[in-house]
Structures are given as C-alpha cells and as structure tokens.
Amino acid sequence: MLRPLLRSIMASTTPRVPIPANGVDYRGKVVLAPMVRSGELPSRLLALKYGADLVWGPETIDRAIMGADRRVNPRNKTIEFTRVSSNGGREDQPKKESVIYRIDPENEKGKLVFQMGTASPEYAVQAAKVVAPDVFGIDVNSGCPKPFSTSGGMGAALLRTPDKLVSILEALVREVGGPYQIGISVKIRLLETPEMTETLVKRLVRTGITGLTIHCRTTPMRPRERAIRDQLRMIVNTCHDAGVACVMNGDVTSRDNALALMEEYGADGAMIATSAEQNPSCFRTGADGGLLPWREVVRSYLEESIRVENRWGNTKYLLNMMVNSKDKAYKDVNKAKSYADACRLLQFDELVSAAQEADQILGLQDRSITSEDGPRPSAVQNAKENNESAKAAGQSTKHKKQASVQKGPGPIRTNSRTSVPNAPSEAEAEVDLSASASVPQQQSQTVTV
C-alpha cells in the first residue's frame, strides 16, 4: 500500500512535458517495439487486437517517405504512402509503384508512432511533415546497430554525433511537433559507461521531446545477449527530472512481465519486440488467458494481411516466425507462393476466397502451387517426370537447351547500400523503400530499431 501512495505523491510533484493535443502519452503503456519487417500494418493490428496500448511502425528512411504520394485504398480504406520506382525495369515498361507505408486510420487512431531513420534535421522535418497528419508521434531511431542504418549516419551512429541528434530533435519539435500537435520522441541505446549515457540523456530531454525509449543494450550487443538494466533507474530519474516519459526496451516478454519491470524500475512504459514477433497475443495478461495457440494467432494474422493487401513476401516472413517450427505446417508454409497457398496448406478454407482476391490484386494468382484439388506437382517433380518420359521414348536430354529467364528489377534503394543475400525474390516481394528493403528475408534474430 505504501509504494503506490508514494508514487502517487511523487507523480503529483514531478514536472511533466505537456502532451500535445494530437499526441500520445507514453506513461502506463505496454507497446509494440519498432522492428524491421516485423512492424508492418498486419502485425501492428494484431498487437492492438491482443492488448498493446501503442504500436511503433518499422524504421522508414526519411528520403523514402519525402517523395511519397498519399492515397486512400478504396477497398479497405487504409492510407497508403506510395512512390514510383526511379530505377530498374525496361524503358518500354511502366515504372513500378510501391507502397512505402500503410496505416489503418480507424484501428490505429491515437495509437501509431512513426519511426524515422534520419541523419539530417532538414530531411527529418520534410519527411515527418508527409505523415504527421496521420500519425500520433514521430520517433527518431538512434539505436539500430545494423549497417543498413548506421552506414548512412543514422541509427546508433547518431549516438556518436550527439550534436546532430539534438539538432534533429529540436527541429522536429519546433517545425513538426508544434504545428501538428504531436509528440516527438527518440530511441537510444546504452553508451559505454553510465556517465556517458547520463550526459547524453540529459541533453536529449532538454530538446522538447515527450518521450525517450532506452534499449538496455549497448550498440555492439546482439539480441541473444541479456539486457543490461543496472543503468535503467538512473535513466528513468533523469527523464523524470525533465518531465519526459521513459520507456524501457530489452528482454520484455509479455504484458505481465512488462508491468512488473515498470514497477521495479519506475519506467513509464515498456516495449515488447521478439516475443510479439513470434506471438502477438503476448500482450494479453495472464488473467485474460495469456498466450493463445499459434494456429489461432496465425489465422488472425493471415486474415488481416489479406484484408490490407500486405506484401506477400513480408507476410510469409512473419508466418515463418509465427508457425510452430515443430509442426508439419511449418514446412508446408515455406512452400507457399501466394495467400491462397498459405490458406489451403494451413487448412483455413474459409479464408481461401478472400485470399484469391488478394492474390489477384497483388499479381500472385499465377504463382500458386496449390489448387482447389490440392497441391500441384513441384517444378522439380515435373522435371523428373519429363526426364523419365524422355528416356522412355529414347530421347537424349543431355543437350537440351535451358530456357532463358529474364530477371526483373531488384528492390529500389534510396542510397548506396549494397544488396543483402537471401533477400526475397522478385517473385515473392514487391519493391520496398523502407529500411527493411536491405534486410534479408530469413533472419535468425529480430532487428529491433
């Protein structure tokens, strides 16, 4: 009884940065972390469905969103930010249009935070103004350690250029936060020493931001390494002294776990990353039943992905995370080439009709490996059968000329980053201009930005 009473007294005397009219208050919130490829719209909607208070989208590069056009999809009423490819393809073919960012204005109202990758105050402001009317917070990524972010001076590289990071936040607060009445926040990592971390946090909370998220790992650390929390209370207190909300991130596994950690360290909120990627029902409390069976969650995920016309390559990537790897269905899903395939192979027959419509819209209908009668023979099986038939007929197959295959254009790049091996083939992924365009489809670890 004494602890809640003391917290109530302290809260009434602690300064608080005002929350803008269209912004969000991070206090008391358990939220979905920004994750490359795993934070697209269907994942966010599922997290909200199962109890997430706020959701962060995946890091999107400033230059990718700056030139985007905004439109409303007439079929599902989602807001889509699109742009046309400026490279690749044949001259006689129309340029490919790609969806960079997608928002569900009804279900994400008051709950969506847009995370930006940037290394320039000018670009940050230009990019933020594109999405500011449709989101409820702008978060600057200064914590991602991956080369696709740091190579451009973004992400964790900003921790080495604090003057630039401060200037970015101040520009966003002044030119976006105020005019659009939304909050500006930042996500950082631990520095080498507590003193260095404290010095940085003190500078950041004086920029006018409403929230700061601390990922309790240093830049060289990877997700498999245990989060370091011995600096967390100091960071929380530093934020609170300036009236800024502090959200913690790192090894938060469930809503109950998040609430316990918030209580222990005095943090205002907590982010869930990897656990939400694998099963977003982790946002349910134990009292509400806790984690749901994977099949129920996957069905809901597929239903949302189909409805919002999510990129198939992205959907398949998340299915591989969510389907139980020990179940036979895991291998079946890996073979899927379309939404109809996934629904048939997982025996979600009631979703097949909608899946086929989505496949038509996304141009996947001719890639399916299944039909109403069941799985179609694989290309390898067909080749073997043709080879056996040829041998039986006394024909030689040694000198048979292989049909030439014309490769389509690769993903559009917004800078000079090199391609990453194992990325989705052109047959399974549309052009992606977000930070995730440079991330391989099959990753052993979550990239939390």
From TrEMBL:
Molecular function terms, GO-annotated: flavin adenine dinucleotide binding; tRNA-dihydrouridine20 synthase activity
Any single GO BP term: mRNA processing
Domain DUS-like FMN-binding: 32-341
Bias-annotated ranges (Polar residues): 413-422
GO cellular component: cytoplasm
Reactions catalysed according to its record: a 5,6-dihydrouridine in mRNA + NAD(+) = a uridine in mRNA + NADH + H(+); a 5,6-dihydrouridine in mRNA + NADP(+) = a uridine in mRNA + NADPH + H(+)
Pfam families listed in its UniProt record: Dus (PF01207)
Span list, region Disordered: 365-449
PROSITE patterns: UPF0034
Cofactors: FMN
Entry keyword annotation includes rRNA processing: no
InterPro entries for the chain: Aldolase_TIM, DUS-like_FMN-bd, tRNA-DUS-like, tRNA_hU_synthase_CS
Comp. bias intervals (Low complexity): 434-449
Keyword line: Flavoprotein, FMN, mRNA processing, Oxidoreductase, tRNA processing
Coiled-coil annotated residue ranges, if any: none
Keyword Disulfide bond: no
Protein purpose: Catalyzes the synthesis of dihydrouridine, a modified base found in the D-loop of most tRNAs. Specifically modifies U47 in cytoplasmic tRNAs. Catalyzes the synthesis of dihydrouridine in some mRNAs, thereby affecting their translation.
Name of the featured protein: DUS-like FMN-binding domain-containing protein
Organism encoding this protein: Talaromyces islandicus (Penicillium islandicum)
